[in-house]
Specification:
alpha/beta; Rossmann fold; three-stranded antiparallel beta sheet; 9 helices
Amino acid sequence: MDVISVKGLNVSYQNKRVLTNIYLTVESGHTYGVIGPNGAGKSTLFKCILGLIDADAGDIQVFGQSVEYHRKRIAYVPQRDEVDWSFPATVQDLVLMGRYPHKRVLQRLNSKDHEIAHYAMEKLGIAEFANRQIGQLSGGQQQRVFIARALAQEADLFFFDEPFVGVDITTEEKIITIMKDLAKEGKTVLVVHHDLSTVDQYFSKVIMINQRLIAFGDTAEVFIPEHIAKCYGAQLTMLHKTGIYQ
């Protein structure tokens, strides 16, 4: 059974088509890089699979069913600019939110939940900031908090939307190591990613989209100049100049 199955997906915003006729399957035990130019529909694809926005047409199944049946098995890390960093929550508060999907309504967190959250913070190197308000952290530390929350959820399917934006190289290396470890455990990780120079190092599979699906599959077979040129078009010259793609 595929972890994710997308068939004939069409999505529009304000009568403008964002995704057209997307067909793809996602398998367990891999890190997937979701790549394409700005405005290609990468984040839209995530939100549609997660049921956060409606599709115009198409069928999406997660673990063989509607996503609604598997919420607690799915962890989502949004882009940092979608988060209200002034919210009066500590690092520990936010990481513990990863345990809520495993709780019944009004059921309290227990010592086991706190133990799991603490382990996740230790793994991301943020345990010392447990009582610090999230807005007081650096960009890299903030990103680590959200990934710690995802780990605390003990999910099977992870969505990371641009997790490396605004983080230092040490944080980036730590995050990608964790993602690869998750894949080794048989879990599935999808990552919206922009730095083409690291795609073949970071991901075992890629999904290349520019409103339409350009290609998907094993990185070594799919991430090739022909597909990159087709995906990025006129933007490819700029990517060469900025060093994002050599």
